[in-house]
Amino acid sequence: MIWKLSGDVTCDGEYAVTIYQKRWKVEEFHKSLRSNAGLAKSPTRTVTAQNNHVFMAIYAVFKLEYLKIKHKANHFALRAKLFIKANQIAYAELQKMKRCLPLNLWMTPIIKKRSITY
What we know:
Number of helices: 5
Structural class: mainly alpha
Shape: elongated
Number of strands: 0
Radius of gyration: 25 Å
Strand content: under 5%
Distance between the termini: 78 Å
C-alpha cells in the first residue's frame, strides 16, 4: 500500500500518512476547480482565452476558499447560497420591470389564436 502513496519503499507509516494528507488537499483543490469553477467546461479556443479562463478559475477557487473559512461552510453550500441569492435578485429585478410596464401590456396574451378553416 505504501508504494501507491510514495515511491520511497523505505518510508514508515507516519510519513506515508503525511504524504497522503498533502495529496488529498491537492485532490480537493482539483475537484473544486472542476466542480465549482467550471474549469472543465471552458468554451475557449485560443491560447490566450484558455490561459485567462484557467487563471480566473484558480482565482475563483481561492475566493471560495476564503468564503469557506469566513462563513464556515463548504464550497458546495456556498455555491448553492450564491445561486439562490442571484435568483432572488433576478426575480426582484423582473418584478421592478413588470411594474414599469403598462398593465394592459403584460396581461394580454402573447400568442394570438388562429382560426383554422378546412
